Amino acid sequence: MEAANRVVPTSGLGAVEVAVQGVVQGVGFRPFVYRLARRLGLSGWVSNDTQGVCIHAEGPLRQLARFEELLAEQAPPAAAVTGVASVPARPAGHASFRILPSRRDEGARPGDACLVRVPPDRAACPECRRETANPADRRHGYPFTTCTDCGPRYSILRRMPYDRPDTTMAGFPLCPACRAEYEGPDHRRFHAQPIACPDCGPRVALWGPTGREMGTGPDAVRRAAGLLREGRVLALKGLGGFQLLVRADSSEAVARLRQRKGRPTKPLAVMVPTLAAAARLAEVGPTERGLLTSPENPIVLLRRRSGAEASLVREVAPRLEEVGLLLPTTPLHHLLLAEVDFAVVTTSGNRSEEPILTDERELPGPLAEVADAFLVHDRPIARRVDDSVVRAASAGPVVLRLARGYAPLPLLALERWMGRHAASPGTPRAVLAVGAHQKAAVALWTGTQAVLSPHAGDLDSPQTRAAFEGLAQGLADLYGCVVGAVACDLHPDYFSTRWAGRLGLPLVPVQHHHAHAVACLVEHDLLDEEVLAFAWDGTGYGPDGTVWGGEALLARLTEYERVASLRPFPLPGNEAAVREPARVALALLAEALGTEAVLNDAGLLARLGLSAAKARTLLRLVERGVNAPWTSSVGRLFDAVAALLLPVGKVSYEGEAATRLESLAAGGAVGGYPLPLTAPALPSSVSGAGQERPHGDWGPLLRALLADLRCGVSVDVIAARFHQALADWAAAVASLRPGPAVVLGGGCFQNALLLERTRAALAEGGRRVYHAGRIPPGDGGLAAGQLAVALGRLLEGQCGEASIQQRAPLEYSGR
């Protein structure tokens, strides 16, 4: 926060104009200012505008000084004040203090270097929940009870400033009782924009599969609960889109949902009514408890309790020890769960690979073959937003999916960095970064503010691509921006890259793993530092024509040097190898043991589920260099090891094999397999052959792993040793680059065990170690890194890829 730096007289009368920036709209900030001014005996006014909150206050100078101090110190819990600027003003003789209508002019005023923050949605607060449950309260049983501390924000917002006429609540005029609360300075709904009640607000209804109304109000909720008890699939219109619900204690009901939705094995989230109910199903520690009960209300990944199968069937998260739980988000969720005595599967309201549905007018439509009934309401959703997903790690929470409650996420360090580096005259005022192809999200520099959007999904279907385009354009419109340049991934076949190229704007391509590294720099305010970055994931396009994914980069904001990687290996069948991990394992084994040795080992092929004929055909692809690209991917190495330890077959979602391997791994201290740091020449079929970059040689690892398998070592110990091997390899690379801080990014660091062991191995050398947390480590955070790289390069007057000038070669360790 910036404070005014001036000497303030302590006697006499005066006036000030104050500008406050940050998350200060939609969080009860104007009512707070009103009460504070009244308490201090000041007169004047407060208003929202497109820059934040503007205040004119007059009265005793001592009280004015105190007023400025308390603006940030005592701000409402949901507020985040990032700047306070004030200038002396001429007293206007106001008799009282008032809240004025929002101002739309963008004339000069103190502090207009920062646009207003868009407020995220917040879960129902305890006070609103108590009112909804109280038979004596006029909002008893009302599904849309909110106040200044909770309720919809981003999802109902059409434009800023955040005022009721600019939200989807504009079509619900306040009744006299709600108007009195809205205008009552001592009421907690004083200027609460989404305020409503049964007499004037949105209403809920239950529709049958053809759209016929089956009930309204409390009766609709009771009937919906009855359908859940019968094992039916219910589509519920939530805060940011439809959700699909079934009872979580019924294998039959869960199987019905999976079959209809086209989601055979991917884990499903589960909503529970209370924290106590969550603790009966899973292990809930202090960090997890805080996440579950936070206003952000994410899905939290928890280790399930043994013996909980009667209440939480295994089919919810097949072959995994973790399950995602969340508490009810809105009063409607609370009311529904109060009617049933079981936990409820709660997943996005769509068919697989499509965006979540937001408009009940499109029903039954896309969900006609999935849901048996629809619990709808007539409050429009302006902006689609899914549930956020978070997991607790020993080093702190890691956001896996950035969405409701967290997004749009301010990138404050990038804003500060831009503030320190004045833009050149030719730098576009607004820059958009379009992320990757999977877990798509965009990031935007508005000229004064940097934000990361909510998760949009994987860009495989026409529907999701259209939603992605709408998200990108909608974010720019919300912040009033005309985009002047676009950052994208190097991969030429990503939809996001092709879409960016069609915009006809200056394009800044950013290497995938460099963007992962820089996203960590943004999160931890390291944008002026050089760091050693470990960027580990499944797939990223490398400038050398290979698929990267197990990288150690010496990285700065605008440039990087690839200082080490995993030893490359082929992917027989290209994308088919991603879906069938046994293909990856076969290629690795052939490289480590020899082709004929593998083909003649019937037991090994049986373990992989491959016939000798199919194995020979796949290895011929490698020999001929046909449809068998080379990769250095840690994610694919995870797949190969999972194929050796588990019956994997075909995976149905990204990271399935790796997630199962992590779930399998035993806790406690174990020694890692050998993963020596060597420098062999690359295979002749790999672009850039002959480079002497050090590699993590997985050959000894595989041979030791196979020896353990043949000796009967338990697979949970083998899985743990594999994780430790990767952590030890990172420490070995870091030991050759003493000095710089280390950052960990990329989708592999969603794995809590890998993250914790890698941090521990690196910390033994006394290094500063940072990891992606608030910004997702996977591709959902990629746009944040792309945006920062693009801004840095545009300020330097260059757009293309840049590499740090090659330095003295590393000394290699043959451990």
Overview of this protein structure:
By secondary structure, the chain is of the alpha/beta class. Helices cover 31% and strands 19% of the residues. The protein has an eleven-stranded mixed beta sheet, sandwiched between helices. Helix 13 (512-523) packs across helix 24 (782-796), helix 15 packs across helix 19 and helix 15 (581-593) packs across helix 21 (699-710). The two termini are 49 Å apart. The relative contact order is 0.09. The model is unreliable at 1-9, 106-114, 681-690 and 803-815 (pLDDT under 50).
Structural class: alpha/beta
Bin the helical content: 25-40%
What is the total tally of β strands?
Answer: 31
Distance from N terminus to C terminus (CA atoms, Å) equals 49 Å
Give a short synopsis of this structure:
The protein is α/β, with parallel strands linked by helices. It contains 24 helices and 31 strands.
Write the topology of this structure.
Elements lengths: L12 E11 L5 H11 L3 E7 L2 E9 H13 L6 E10 L7 E3 L26 H8 L42 H8 L20 E4 L5 E4 H13 L4 E4 L4 E6 L3 H11 L8 E2 L3 H7 L4 H7 L6 E5 L18 E5 L4 H8 L5 E5 L24 E5 L11 E3 L6 E4 L7 E2 L1 H9 L9 E4 L9 E3 L4 E3 L9 H17 L4 E7 L5 H8 L4 E4 L1 H12 L7 E11 L5 E9 L4 E7 L2 E2 L4 H5 L1 H13 L1 H5 L2 H7 L3 H13 L5 E2 L2 H12 L10 H9 L12 E2 L16 E2 L2 H12 L4 H21 L5 E5 L6 H12 L5 E3 L10 H15 L19
Parallel strand pairs: 2-5, 8-14, 10-12, 11-15, 18-21, 21-22, 23-30, 25-29, 30-31
Antiparallel strand pairs: 1-3, 1-4, 2-3, 6-7, 6-14, 8-9, 9-13, 10-13, 11-12, 15-16, 17-20, 18-19, 19-20, 23-24, 24-25, 26-27, 28-29
